[in-house]
Amino acid sequence: MPFDPTKLKDWQIAEEAEKSLPTNEDWIERLGLEKDELIPMGRTPKLDFIKIMDRMENKPDGKFIEVTAITPTPLGEGKSTTSLGLIEGLGKRGKNVGGCLRQPSGGPTMNIKGTAAGGGNALLIPMTEFSLGLTGDINDITNAHNLAMVALNARMQHERNYDDETLATRGLKRLDIDPTNVEMGWVIDFAAQGLRNIIMGIGAQRDGYMMQSRFAISVSSELMAILAVATDLADLRKRIGEMTVAYDKKGNPVTAEDLEVAGAMTAWMRNTINPTLCATVEGQPVMVHAGPFANIAIGQSSIIGDRVGLKMFDYHVTESGFAADIGFEKFWNVKCRLSGLKPNVSVLVATVRALKMHGGGPKVVPGRPIPEEYTTQNLELVEKGFCNLKHMIEVVKKSGITPVVCINSFYTDTEEEVKLVRKLVEETNTRVAVSEHWLKGGEGALELADVVAEACEEPNEYKPLYPLDMPLRERVDAIAREVYGADGVDWSPLAEEKAKRFESDPKFADFQTMMVKTHLSLTHDPTLKGVPTGWRLPIRDILVYSGAKFLCPMAGTISLMPGTGSDPAYRRIDVDTKTGKVSGLF
């Protein structure tokens, strides 16, 4: 160790590192667990969080570290890689450290993005299990979600076919569901654009209720959002029961509880509440739990994972999806509020290459050579693009959480470019470290580990951006101005009408605000890089997740079913038929 990532692919590094993967017995001893607190699941056991929390209830929490980034570019910023590298670096310093990351979806894994398992010597193992379903949480969510749709369609068919008296003999009360106002669709964990819009129930009367429907990707299901914020099995069951599946013809919600399917859905998901235990290539423990969308849901691993990690580890690392304007904002104002946990440090990841793009560098097209501006020294582009990083530093500071900037180093970065970024960060009175974890693993992340550990000892003044009793439109305006840098918010008539209704109904008083916006820009326009000025945020609609208790103001259109590209990853994935080993994952 470390491996040479310039010569080995990630799956090859994982294959070698997994030869030293801790066994269940190793984990029990290393983590100080009781034997029944670890649930055997092959090479990726689960942790019984209720038993662990009961035993460690009075143990003080460790240091809480969140990882976020500048606005994403096609060049990549490396949040997962940095999260794992930081864990490895703290491990090299002899710290009791671990973390919790999101579970990847089969859609990106089999498409263009890959597994999100980190990379190089900052990689999560066992990589095959992590990338291909792990312990089945997403499958359980898929089945539970689709069971709700089975229940809905069957109920609509029977209400069409039978009168009230006949329904009563079968123990059913007419729900009078409006077929034109169905909230849910079906889910599948692949990027299947051909299923975005479907007609179901084609055929005879016995073939179900014919209606327009749709598919979304499984990780966009409200059930995944619920798993990320649930506190225990009872809370999971309650939230599932409150999910709105459709509306009746008077506009009243029809919930999973109304359809008498909530209990069975919870049965499918009963095992999902326990985090799965994986490791870095250097053997540090990393839990994997939940994987909700970041641009329509909370974009975080679970509250349960953080609660367990803060009891088991002296330093617990978690990651927010996308950049500080989306993932960190939801971590700051939603996850921390719901969990009651106060973070010590937020690590803000940036790369020289990404700063160049924010400084006006040329467009990068997947599958084509990277323009030379990104592989040769260009101090002017770096300095111009620093505005995006500076904006994100200011966002983190507004939360009261201590920021640490990580310059995630690439081999193409020049010494002068890295020095310039360091200088610019230090001028904002912010800690900064250069890290080479991809190339060197924990040894390459020692500076980052030391700076983060030092920052963890600094008292901070964590505070939400807005109080929960602030009206919805005022919350959105605060986020738009203080986080995105907008001059204000423009509401469509539909969105404003809904906002007024939600603000006046006490039922929505404790619902969280979950902004829906492109991750590719601080604005609603994905083509605008850097820090745009002189713009207003348009809100066209508001989605309701009644089980997760989210109100989701939508700035633009977000597809819940991605499409598969012309050169997807599955073309290069295969299995050795003699050993069963999977190759080609990245």
- Number of discrete helical segments: 20
Distance between the termini: 20 Å
Radius of gyration: 24 Å
Largest sheet: 10 strands, mixed
| CATH-assigned fold name of the largest domain | Rossmann fold
Give the CATH level 1 class of the largest domain: Alpha Beta
Q: What share of residues are in beta strands?
A: 15-25%
What structural category arises from helix and sheet content?
alpha/beta
**Can you tell me the residue ranges where pLDDT is under 50 for at least 5 consecutive residues?**
none
What is the tally of beta strands? 26
Count the domains: 3
Write the CATH architecture name of the largest domain. 3-Layer(aba) Sandwich
GO molecular function, one term: formate-tetrahydrofolate ligase activity
InterPro entries: Formate_THF_ligase (IPR000559), Formate_THF_ligase_CS (IPR020628), P-loop_NTPase (IPR027417)
Protein name: Formate--tetrahydrofolate ligase
Pathway: One-carbon metabolism; tetrahydrofolate interconversion
Give a concise summary:
With 586 residues, this protein is α/β, with parallel strands linked by helices.
Descriptive overview:
It is a single chain. The strands form 8 sheets. A 10-stranded mixed β-sheet has the order 5-6-14-15-4-16-3-17-18-19, sandwiched between helices. A 3-stranded antiparallel β-sheet has the order 7-12-13, with helices on one face. With 586 residues, it is α/β, with parallel strands linked by helices. Helix 4 (79-92) crosses helix 18. The mean pLDDT is 95. The two termini are 20 Å apart. It has 3 domains: 10-135 and 278-456, Rossmann fold, CATH 3.40.50.300; 137-269, Domain 2, N(10)-formyltetrahydrofolate synthetase (2-Layer Sandwich); 472-554, Formyltetrahydrofolate synthetase, domain 3. Helix content is 35%, strand content 17%. The protein is built from 20 helices and 26 strands. The chain is globular and about 80 Å long. Strand 5 and strand 6 form a beta hairpin.
